[in-house]
Every structure is written in C-alpha cells, then in structure tokens.
Amino acid sequence: MNKFIGALASFCGEHRLEQKILIGPSLRVGHQWIENVTRDGFSVTNVRVQTLKGFALSIANLRLASTGQKWISETGAWIIVTRLINELIGTGESYFSALFPRDTLARSLSQTIYSLRISGIRPEDLDPGAFESSEKAHDIAWLLNEYLRILDERKLVDYAEVLTLGTQLIQDGGIQQSGIFFALAPEDLDIASLEKKLIESIGPDRFIFLPVDKPTSGAEGDKVSDARILSWIMEPASAPEAQGDGSGKIFQALGFTNEVREAIRQTIAPTEISSTQPRHHLDEVELLYTDQRTYVPIIYDLFSYAALSQDIDTPFELVTFADGIPARLSRPGHALIAWLSWIRNGYPQSSLVNMIQEGWLQSDALSDENTIMNRQRTIRRQTLPKETK
Fold it and tell me: Alpha carbon of 224 to those of 104, 143, 203, 250: distances in Å?
C-alpha cells in the first residue's frame, strides 16, 4: 500500500460517518483510489469523488442560481475565442494574421486565455515587456478584454469566475449551506492561483492534503522492495541495491508491439504455484504508456485478436481505455474511412464488396448468417505484426 492510499484509508476510518469529498485529477483516478482502499481491506463510506473544477462548481452553484448566471465550459470558451480570433485576424493588422492553421491557433490562444484567467491575471496586468513583441501583448490583452466583455453581456461565468464566486461564498459563510464537511486531496495536486485561494478560504481543517510517495522519499541504505526503488527514479545513483524480490522488473523488447506483448505476457503469466492460475487478473492491472498515438492502436489490435480467439465480440470486454480510442479504430470509423475511400476512388465494386464482407454495411441480398461468416473469415485473415525472434 502506498502512502497516499494508506493515509486515505486511515482518514476514512477515523471519520467514517462524516461526508467526505475526494478531489482527484479525474473522476476515473479518484474512483481507482477508492477501489484500491477497499481492495486492501478497508471500509470507505460516505465518500464522493470530484475533480477540483466539479468541487468549485458545487459551491458556486449556490451563488449562480441566485444571480441567473450560467457556467460556460472550456469548449464554449474556445468557441468565443475562435470568433474573436477571426475578427482580429480579419483586420489584417494583427500579430496573429500570418499564423495558420486558424483552428490550431484558436485552441492555443484559448488555452492561453484559460491559463491567464485561473492565474488571476487581468488585461491591465499584462506587461508588454514580458512578450517577444509589443503587438502580441496588445492582441492578447484585447482578446482577454473582449472575452470578458462577452461573458459579462451574456451573463456567463468561466472556471476562473466560478473559483472567485466560490471563494466569496465561503468567506461569507456559505460553506455551511453546501453540506461539505471534509475535502481530501493528494498533496501533489497541481493547483493554480485562484484554486489555491479557494482552498485557503476553506481552511486546513476542512480541506486536507494527504501525503503521497515522492521520489527519493526513503532513507538511503534502507532495504526496500524492487518496486519501491522506483521512487529514486530522478536520482538513480542514490538508489539502494535491488533486493531481487520480483516486485519490480525491467525488460527490453525490439519494437513497440513486442514491448506491449511482453508486458501483457508477464502480467497474465501463470504463477509458480499453479500452471493455470494467472499471476494477475486483467481487471487488477493498469498498463501505462508514454505515447497514446503509438501504443493505443497496438493494445487495441492485440486485445481484438484475443477477443476473437475467445469468441468475444469486442475487445472492450477485456480491456478499458481510460482516454478512449481514436475514432478510426472503431467500427463506425472504419466504415466512414472505407466509404470515403470508395467515393474518392470512383466507386469500385471491390471496395463495396469488402465493406459488406467486413460487416460495415448491410445488404438485403445477403443473409445475416452469411454476413457474419464473411466478416469472421476476413478478420481471421488479418495478421498482427510478427514478433521479432
């Protein structure tokens, strides 16, 4: 059990009946923390998982309901910034006029506006000397000012304003009405300036940061498990000697596909005690990767093949992708790509037949049974990249 899970279990045990809000970087991660606590044999009751944004909204909603204001999401803010960017570039005198594509530019500037807002920076706070160009400083200040004007006209509030309203409500005593008793978060939670003000207004007796494992947090020379040695990842020269207990292992593979295969193979390999019992069940394993574009398609293909061998319709019965999968890997994505390719290439018959055989299109001329058989034969013909010997 790591330090944070242990602290969370201890706090929930001491405050079993009180309402507790567990703040996580995402709802998925927060629920994983709860599952880890219960798997270690500890009771977790009256705990609700939220993100810091959701937590702030739950407080500010008391004020928003009385003022008639509405919260605008990051997507809504991006739409406003996109319109302002087009208006600014349309003048032909903007610093950003020569930058393309506009969609990428709008998303970057939308993120800039978001970062400035949650840092509590106003248009008049921008220092032209901090920019590479005074024109760029002028344009960003104009964007920020117009963005705020539109929000005010339409009675909208963004996340930064939600944080400000929540802080004011707490300082006015409104925290009692919200029903929040304890808020728990890991001490390494990434927080911005306005988020910090909200947390400070709640007070350390209600918003409690729980300790987490940190790099090189162990004493040099202590005997620790091989897995625990990973805490010295930033200072490997100071790490203690490995114990060889099997809790951590490093392997090398040639190619990304072989790398994923070996990680899965070692995870589900039979134990030394039983030749049929896997070392870990899939629902107990989290596979981390460094590049979504590289690894997700490989993991998807491997588990698609495994699902087919077990007569399972989709790989999602075996594995869950926390960040989702690219649309092109889904059946509708495959169908759309094939359909567009068929149109672009002049409507060849072979492409249309292939779409029907794959099951992406339905044809009254074929029975359901024949369609399924053709699709299964097509899938079985597909081969994954061969493993390097």
Answer: 47, 53, 36, 17
pLDDT score recorded for residue 384: 46
* Tens digits of residue pLDDT in 6-38: 999 999 999 988 899 999 998 888 998 998 899
Query: Structure tokens of 278?
Result: 């896997």
The pTM of this model reads: 0.69
| CB-CB contact of 225 with 245 (8 Å) | yes
Q: What is the DSSP letter of 388?
A: P
Return d(Cα 384, Cα 82) in angstroms, integer.
42
19 Cβ contact list (under 8 Å, min separation 6): 46, 48, 179, 180, 181, 182
Q: Cβ distance 306 to 282 under 8 Å?
A: no
Residue 161 tokens read as: 């304003």
β-strand pairing of 156-157 with 47-50: unpaired
DSSP one-letter code for 222: -
Contact between 19 and 48 under an 8 Å Cβ cutoff? The reply is: yes
Q: Is 161 helix (H, G, I), strand (E, B) or coil?
A: helix
For the stretch 185-218, pLDDT in tens is 999 888 999 999 999 998 899 899 999 877 665 5
- H helical segments located in the chain: 3-14, 27-39, 52-67, 74-90, 102-118, 134-153, 159-171, 175-178, 193-202, 256-268, 292-309, 331-344, 349-358, 368-381
Architecture per CATH, 3-66+161-210: 3-Layer(aba) Sandwich (3.40)
| Ramachandran angles phi, psi of 128, nearest 5° | -55, -30
**Calpha distance 15→264 (Å, rounded):** 39
